[in-house]
Design a protein that fits this description.
Layout (H helix, E strand, L loop, with lengths): L29 E5 L3 E5 L2 H4 L3 H4 L5 E6 L16 H16 L2 E11 L13 H12 L3 E9 L8 H6 L8 E8 L17 H9 L5 E2 L5 E2 L16 E3 L15 H14 L11 H11 L5 E4 L6 H8 L3 E6 L2 H6 L8
Parallel strand pairs: 2-11, 3-4, 3-10, 5-9, 10-11
Antiparallel strand pairs: 1-2, 4-6, 5-6, 7-8
Length: 336
């Protein structure tokens, strides 16, 4: 049953929080470019949400997948908000984004960690922002995942590499939410390759069943059927090909970004400084949608989500406030 049923329309409780210094000037949203499956819309998400570009798809979006500007303790070139301003801003967006979803649609939001300014302690703001978003949108939390990137540079540098009093920050929070307790999802779409031990077990057809210390009883044939792969865990390690579904390997991250960066340089455009890994978008697009479903990314940046949707034969709408970043994202679709 839809969690929003019988509650009436969801509306923000007050006006949107103004953008911080560095936020692009407000302009009428417009379509910058289109493909056979999708379009890039430029403009602040606050404006695009109440424009014809998204009002036409209200109740039809199958997946909203995004990584909004992280709630860092200092300003970035892409105009991130900080502190309580960030929390209030993200909370205001939740109801309007939720209204776009199909009854069995999902919202997946990735947010990184934040540290308190000037001292080696972590801020609870990212988790509070996610919780505020979930509550304001009246969404169910389907699952909390973490995205681990072991190749990430050691940070925060002062505490990790200079004073050596903290471990490096190498993961982000990913919350999968939905207006329904049972949104469209199928973990068979994102099976990971079997490990060597499982392959041996399938080959020998021999398994030590019986009761485990946990109390679980495993039948003698419980793990002898080949399901085509292992069920993915809720800790995603996107830097390790052995832990990714085999279908993901058709996208090489190095070649993926090299093409985009080359295009930006050729056009004298600034490449987005915080580009999303395509494997992360690909995982949720395949897990939570079917071919020809509609996917929205309200903070598209270099439009990784749109390109992944295109590769996987999904329709897409991407929104980016920074016109230069949006222009550069054309490189994701350039034929050369």
């Amino acid at each position: 049953m839809n969690a929003l049923a019988g509650r009436g329309p969801i509306k923000p409780d007050k006006a949107f929080v103004p953008g911080p210094a560095g936020t692009p000037r407000r302009q009428k949203p417009k379509v910058l470019y289109k493909t056979g499956l999708g379009k890039m819309v430029t403009g602040l998400i606050e404006d695009v949400l109440v424009s014809e570009h998204l009002s036409r798809v209200k109740g039809k979006v199958n997946l909203i997948f995004t990584s909004p500007p992280f709630p860092l303790v200092f300003k970035k070139k892409y105009g991130n908000r900080t502190g309580e301003e960030y929390l209030a801003w993200l909370r205001q967006l939740a109801p309007l984004l939720t209204e776009l979803l199909a009854p069995d649609g999902s919202i997946v939001v990735e947010i990184g960690n934040a540290w308190n300014s000037g001292d080696p302690t972590m801020s609870t703001l990212p988790l509070r922002a996610l919780l505020a978003f979930q509550e304001a949108g009246r969404l169910y939390l389907c699952q909390h995942l973490v995205c681990h990137n072991p190749a990430r540079l050691p940070s925060p540098a002062q505490w990790v590499t200079v004073e050596r009093i903290r471990l490096k920050d190498s993961f982000t929070h990913v919350w999968w939410m939905a207006p329904s307790k049972r949104p469209n999802a199928d973990n068979r779409r994102v099976l990971t390759p079997y490990g060597a031990d499982m392959l041996k077990l399938l080959r020998t057809k021999s398994y030590n069943g019986g009761r485990r210390p946990s109390g679980h009883v495993i039948s003698e044939e419980g793990f002898l059927k080949n399901h085509g792969g292992a069920i993915a865990p809720n800790a995603l390690e996107i830097d390790d090909p052995a832990r990714l579904p085999e279908s993901f390997l058709k996208i090489s991250n190095t070649a993926w970004d090299a093409k985009y960066v080359k295009y930006c340089r050729a056009k004298a455009l600034m490449a987005h400084p915080a580009r999303m890994r395509p494997e992360l978008a690909m995982f949720f697009v395949e897990f939570l949608t079917r071919k020809q479903d509609l996917i929205l990314d309200p903070f598209a940046g270099s439009n990784t989500t749109g390109r992944v949707a295109e590769v996987l034969d999904r329709q897409w709408i991407s929104v980016e406030a920074n016109h230069e970043y949006a222009q550069g994202s054309r490189g994701r679709f350039a034929k050369r």
